[in-house]
Amino acid sequence: MAATSEDPHSLGELARVVVLGARIVRRQERGKPTARLEARVDRIRAQAEAREAARAKARKKK
């Protein structure tokens, strides 16, 4: 279930993205690489958008 009607992310996905964002900032401050964490955030966002697009397509069929 989406957090808002305009947002494709669920509350759990939003929480994961926020936590990963905090970890990314912390690693950047220490000069460490963040590509893997950023890729995880991108995957979470892509899955949420794909899920909501599929739901919208299913709603249009009816």
TrEMBL record:
Protein name stated in the entry: Uncharacterized protein
User: In which organism is this protein found?
Assistant: Streptomyces adustus
